Amino acid sequence: MGETGSPDFPYYRTNLAHVHDLGFGFHADACAPGILTLLDQVREQDGLVVELGCGSGGLTRHLVERGHRVIATDASPAMLDLARRHAPDVEDVRLLVLPDDPIPRADAIVSVGHVLSYLPDEEAIRRALAAACAALRPGGVLAIDICDLKWGEFRRDTPLNAWVNDEWVLVTRFSVPAPNRFVRELTTFLRGDDGSWRRDDERHENVLIDTSCVPARLREYGVDAAVGSSFGVYDLPVGLATVIGHRSSHDTVPGPVSADSAPALR
Q: How much is the pLDDT for 7?
């Protein structure tokens, strides 16, 4: 029988969290060297890093091993359980659901795996970006990835994909119902200790944005940022953009930016 999970956490329930951990940790591993370089000064000053959407703890582990103080957050309880296992020395692992849950004050905010693209609409992405910028201390670093409109354009005709091995199976169907929407329908099978297989089905909808508009909006939130296509030497998949920014060391940290007062992305 499929695991329905909580309606509050529609993404990365137990089955898919484990499949992602076992077979798809390479993106976090590839992003880590470039992000660690960006955060060298934060580490030297014993600053605090907040990770949004830590998943199973792939990037978290790299950050902790480099000597960073890290608060790892995610909206998926199943992912948080895995992160605690993979990064036991992390300062804290906590449930945080964007865009409404408060983000702790931090000297760096990082995120990989297009976490903000999982929010329900562009308004929610705008609010999450505003909240992340507001949480940055003076001199703080922002380093995230996010899906551009090109993500859907490039994958419009992607065929069904299936990954099969002895412990898990993942079948993924893709669709682009609108220029700013990318949908994956994922069916997972996970082998239990008794040899039986457990099935679950998830539908992931990603919101795609014109990322060229992001730097101007972040300046409104007090962060100077640039959009790129790589963390260090690692070139991200087509349509996945990096947003790397800094708050001036002379800035005062603003209070939380409300949904009504924060400028729109477009």
A: 45
